[in-house]
Amino acid sequence: MKKLLFILWVIAVQAVSGQAPDPDFTDKMALREGPSRMKSAAFIEAAENASYDLVYQKLDLELDPAVRYISGSVTSQVQILKDNIGTLSFDLSSALVVDSIHFDLGKIDYQHTNDKIIISIPSSVQNNSFHLTTVFYHGIPPVTGFGSFTVSTHAGAPILWTLSEPYGAKDWWPCKESLSDKIDSIDVYITCPSQYKGASNGRLYTDQVSGTKRTTHWKSHYPIATYLVGIAVTNYETYSDFLDIADGKKIEVLNYVYPEYLQDAKSRSGEILDILGFYNTKLITYPFAAEKYGHAQFGWGGGMEHQTMSFMTSLSFDLVAHEMAHQWFGDYITLASWHDIWLNEGFATFMTGLVYETLKEGFYWPIWKDQEVKKITSADDGSVYVADTTSVNRLFDSRLTYAKGAYLLHMLRWEMGDANFFKGLKDYLTDPSLAYRYASQAKFLQHMEMAGDTSLTEYFKDWYYGEGYPNYRIDEFTDLATNRQMIRVKQVPSNSSVSFFEMHIPIRVWKNGLSKDLRLYNTLQDQEFVISDEKVDSIQFDPQQWLCAKADITTGVAEVLEPAFIQIFHEYSTKRLRIIMPPSPEGGVLRIVDLNGRTVLTALLKDRDSGVEISKLHDGMYVVEVQTKDAQKRQKIVISND
Q: Nearest Cα to 617, choosing from 589, 603, 638?
């Protein structure tokens, strides 16, 4: 039988085709992406950055992928934002040589030290005025420990590529390293030997060969963060697919891939278009639709979401889903603080999960959820919020930033319901104050609260700032007075930073082969719920894995059809004792005694099923005594009114 089940499973996997979720995918992504951000630990936004707005930049570069060398010029249009600033600064590695600098078409004095260019500008420059500055430079970009500028090979062919996130752009071009000022538009000209092609951001305007040289011109009219500008040069094969959208328009998916990978890449066209189409529907239309979405293959074991042109080691399903999601969460709306890195990585991981839910017939969706929950609950601590942004290991912790960040969103969807959740997500993406700009955690929270018409303060306190997850114990029992089926829910948080996770919990009830799903709001310790008017066959906790939690279920607790002895139940949610006695016309007597032997409460019990209020008793341990004509019982209880 096991062999047959295995064969059926294999057939099912083959039927949905594609790749199953890699259980180590978030680990690999964190390991790959983390080193690229190492410079963020020491980075402090330069005070002089606030003195001007970067309106436009033109990169005019000459490169050979076989040689670690760059030469060219970068022209910047700036708007002065302060009076009497005296100087203008750009970031550029001191390993590169500045040949000259022009300001408003005339040569000007400058200093180039400590990876900074300080340009002396005329005193006549006024606030709100616009100016052009051009830096002519050349040199060998430094090796800074990770791929800001890398020369390598694939299948014997040379390749050159950049990866600047978050503050490596200055290793290869004069720029403004910033998480507050996007460049409004850019032109990128790449000149290289004619047998190669250059890939970059935006739309390809021209690709011209003149003699032994080829020059490609890329242009983007969308605001772009400095770290999202990228170039790659090798013997690319290129092809395009197109996704139909509203009004007869199309989105181009432009691919620059290695010749040896071309056929494999083309075989993935259908699923790539499916992912893009899904994001367009579930979120908003691809925010750079007027230009393109593209992939450029490069020599790093992962991906990098360069705006409109993700650099990819391959076009694997989960990698495409992750990097493409960054075009919305990271490129279009960019995090304003590394404390909130989940706005990039948690969201991209969550969207990858939604792709598995919707595509491949949903086959891999439960597998993805199971993998993420196991990863998160493999340790009892850790918050999504990053308190120490100097720790690269913590910033790109696969369990917390990626997996728990994604599951925070998944559980928020459960709490809010699909309609409100996705409305809030779309409202966040269409907020004109955030579109093509920077966003904080507070801005996202504001939109979700407005969409749900509710406060999410407690939820984010527990799941964003708090650590750990809830452990549930579910006790199933029969209410002997009404014969209704009940459960009692006890919760133990895995970490003391959260006293109680207030959550809706999913319970599935089975009776005669049919199931019914219940949504129960657990707000109290030892809370009791009616799950059926009659005895059920079985119950399941969270069968669809909405929650990041662990749970144990016990059945048949205190289930007696006709009591042959006295039973004492402490009903925590109603703060009373429930006493069930054998039939006796005389009834019984209840006495509660504290640990000092003092009687603190007495009551006459007239009914077989009686209730006694204990809410006025102080917290502590007590002994409950119940006496009838034919029976007696003593039982310890603990009262806690928290």
A: 638
pLDDT at 242 over 80: yes
pLDDT in tens, 394-407: 888 999 999 999 99
Look at the block and give the residue holding tokens 């790449």. Answer: 190
Question: Could you tell me which CATH number the domain at 567-639 has?
Answer: 2.60.40.3080
Identity of the amino acid at 498: V
How far is the C-alpha of 420 from the C-alpha of 442, rounded, in Å? 18
The gap between the terminal CA atoms of the chain, to the nearest Å, is: 52
Angle at 191 between CA 149 and CA 259, to 5 degrees: 75
Same fold, 45-234 and 470-554: yes
Rounded (10°) angle between helices 441-452 and 418-430: 140
Question: 503: closest CA among 537, 471, 535?
Answer: 471
What contacts 454, CB < 8 A, 6 or more positions away?
A: 416
| Distance in angstroms (rounded) separating the CA atoms of residues 144 and 142 | 6
For residues 606 and 417, which has the higher predicted lDDT (pLDDT)?
417
Angle between helix axes 317-325 and 269-282 (nearest 10 degrees) is 30
Question: Hey, what are 479's tokens?
Answer: 């209410």
8 A C-beta contact, residue 228 and residue 331: yes
Query: From the CB of residue 52, how many other CB atoms can be counted at a distance below 10 Å?
Result: 23
Domain boundaries, the chain: 45-234, 338-465, 470-554, 567-639
What is the DSSP secondary-structure string of 495-563?
A: STT-S---EEEEEEEEETTEEEEEEEEE-STTEEEEEESS--SEEEE-TT--SS-EEEEE--TT--SS-
How many helices (H) and strands (E) the chain has is answered by 12, 36
465 φ/ψ angles, rounded to the nearest 5 degrees:
-90, -35
Over the stretch 169-227, which tens digit does the pLDDT of each residue have?
999 999 998 888 999 999 999 999 999 999 999 999 999 999 999 999 999 999 999 99
Identify the CA nearest to 544 among candidates 513, 504, 575: 504
- Structural class in CATH, domain 470-554: mainly beta
Query: What's the whole-number mean pLDDT along residues 588-609?
Result: 90
Tokens matching residue 546: 């909405």
- Domain 338-465 in CATH 3.10.20.740? The answer is no
Please provide the average confidence, as pLDDT, over all residues in the chain: 90
* Six token digits for residue 630: 């034919």
Q: Round to whole Å and give the CA distance between 609 and 580.
A: 5
Cα–Cα distance between 370 and 363 in angstroms, integer? 13
Contact in structure between 325 and 279 (CB atoms under 8 Å): yes
Q: Which amino acid type is present at position 212?
A: T
Q: Contact 286/250 with Cβ under 8 angstroms?
A: no
Tokens for 133? 């500055």
Q: Which among 379, 380, 372, 381 has a CA at the least distance from the CA of 405?
A: 372
Residues 139, 95 contacting (CB under 8 angstroms): yes
> Where do we find the tokens 């969308």?
222
Amino acid at 331: D
Give the DSSP H or E segment for 628: strand 620-628
Model confidence, pTM: 0.83
Asked whether the beta carbons of 323 and 313 are under 8 A apart, the reply is no
The continuous run of DSSP H or E covering 3 comes out as helix 2-16
SS3 content of the chain, % helix, strand, coil (to 5): 25, 35, 40
Half-sphere exposure of 155 (CA within 13 A, CB side): 11
The CATH topology of domain 45-234 is: Immunoglobulin-like (2.60.40)
CB 219 within 8 A of CB 57: no
